[in-house]
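Protein record

Derive tokens from sequence
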Amino acid sequence: MQESFAYEGKLRTYRIYLPANYIAGSVRPVIFQFHGFSETAASDQSFSKWMPVADTAGFLVVYPNGLKDPFHSNNQYWNVGWPWLPNTNDVGFVSTLIDTVNARHHIDLQRVYASGMSNGGFMAFLLGANLSNKIAAVAAVSGGIVPSVYDTLVPKRPIPTLSIHGTADNIVPYNGGGGMFASVHVDSVFTFWGLHNQCTPEVDTTYLPNLASGDGSTVVLFEFKNESCLYDSRLYRIVGGGHIDWPGSSIPGNQDMNACSEIWNFFKTYTLPPVVSAEDPHSDDAISISLYPVPVLDEVTISVNQVGDSRDPILITIVNTMGEVIQRGKINSGESAMIADMKTNSPGMYFVVVTQGRRQNVYKLLKV
């Protein structure tokens, strides 16, 4: 079923799937599924195959259509930060779309989720950072974060995230890179979300059974899910998997897992958290530091700019993109800085986790 509404002077359309047991007026969870670049809501509905899972679990699926890019063969897109795309307010569109679908179908506003494929996966992560007041959890398949967005991204709140990505993806490479579909290393994105969810840098690794030995790929699951995590963060690494690989759906593609089932089983455990008052009594306790020089070649100085009332030492943990601890240190009460020696560390992205009491901030650090 296709529906539409006007947004910022343009007609925006979407498809909506109502589960087999749907009763008009009943309040149901909803997944917003975002298509890839040059794809459509209709093609993505056929490709991702959410319908059987939706029928069993009883949730709605909304497939929005991106606008057409007149400079690139009228291909449909989501504005996720690539500079060659039109500067469309797609986050604002999705916010209005959620309200519109609720007005027409009475969805459960505490259980609104976003997932996407490729360009749509980038969109899901962007929504996780910028529309988390309406979206409870996000998932990306063969998607990521644009480097220019990643460099300045500050999510509005911790949020559950799930990523599925093939190591042989030649469109959005697992190791990241430039080009038309520039992206950050998948491991960096995974660790960014895990640390943002205030997880300690400890990652669980599970090798999924190779149920389909003839599909040319296997699956390794990485999880931030320790006791300190406000929310879990998951990465399914499809070893040997390509770009057009929605596990359990696309052929050729991985058949050791079903992406829709895994994503839904992850989503269904989360609801939108209560609204936090802007007058948070702990808002003055935030930790602010500076890193110099950036990027770092040999040593980096970690200086305290602002600290709350706590007399606890400031704990410094430097981790790599897979959450492995590289260095630990601390800045005691009365001290203003520490120096971390990174001469022997490989070039790449690292994270500086700053903890004092129950407060934790995360900073990105590039080593050259």
